[in-house]
TrEMBL record:
Family: Belongs to the azoreductase type 2 family.
InterPro entries reported in the protein's UniProt record: Flavoprotein-like_sf (IPR029039), FMN_Rdtase-like_dom (IPR005025), NAD(P)H-dep_reductase (IPR050712)
PANTHER family for the chain: CHROMATE REDUCTASE, NAD(P)H-DEPENDENT FMN REDUCTASE LOT6
Top-rank taxon, per record: Bacteria
Pfam family, one: FMN_red
Gene Ontology molecular function, alphabetical: FMN binding; oxidoreductase activity
Residues forming coiled coils: none
Any Gene Ontology CC annotation: cytosol
Name of the protein this chain belongs to: NAD(P)H-dependent FMN reductase
Domain NADPH-dependent FMN reductase-like: 2-146
């Protein structure tokens, strides 16, 4: 069995990125167990002073979730040409503790715009590289025009996108398996 932690960079209830995340989970085989991390909004703002003396409970939970996962899937929007603050904040808490070290990680950005959140995606990769996450080859996906590829219920209506998501999932799974045999 493979355990994957799924993180949405959007806190919005009807988020297209959350819908994508759920679509990927729906494509997974039985041996892949997904956990959706819902704590982004509960994390305190990163503060080096706090990090030096204590581990707030939501931070401990985030770190534990990542530690216990074989891989991580991030689906994120782009805000103001960058990574959503809540997501960057979470990653900042992981710099000192290092749970993402060598962790197979796939990054998906989606946007209604023709650019697909490419700047948030690139910026996220920079941070993940600094954290030495194992960014899975071809596990990075930039999805433009997301609103025309999902229906009202959040299901994927675009067959090409479905195929791309399946491919990301398979690549991530493969990377997680490799980790198991080390
Ligand atoms: C946006 N949006 C946006 N889109 C984009 O491609 N690049 C950007 O820089 C921004 N900036 C931005 C700022 C703010 C404050 C908002 C509210 C929105 C649009 C964004 O991609 C869109 O709202 C998505 O639907 C958000 O993703 P979720 O919540 O559907 O997952």
């Amino acid at each position: 069995e493979i355990k994957i932690l799924a993180i949405s960079g959007s806190l919005r209830q009807n988020s297209s990125n959350k819908a994508l995340m759920n679509a990927i989970i729906g494509l997974a085989k039985e041996n892949v167990k997904f956990t959706i991390y819902g704590g982004l909004g509960d994390l305190p703002h990163f503060n080096q002073d706090i990090d030096a003396v204590e581990e707030p409970v939501p931070v401990r939970e985030l770190r534990t979730h990542i530690k216990e996962a074989d891989g991580v899937l991030i689906c994120t929007p782009e805000y103001g040409n960058g990574v959503p603050g809540v997501l960057k904040n979470a990653l900042d808490w992981l710099v000192s503790s290092g749970e993402l070290y060598n962790k197979p990680t796939a990054v998906i950005s989606a946007s209604p715009s023709p650019m697909g959140g490419d700047k948030a995606n690139a910026s996220l990769l920079l941070t993940l590289k600094m954290l030495n996450a194992d960014i899975v080859e071809s596990g990075t996906l930039i999805i433009p025009h997301i609103t025309s590829k999902l229906n009202k219920e959040g299901s994927i209506t675009d067959p090409e996108l479905k195929q791309e998501l399946l491919s990301v999932l398979q690549t991530l799974e493969h990377a997680c398996h490799q980790g198991e045999t080390i």
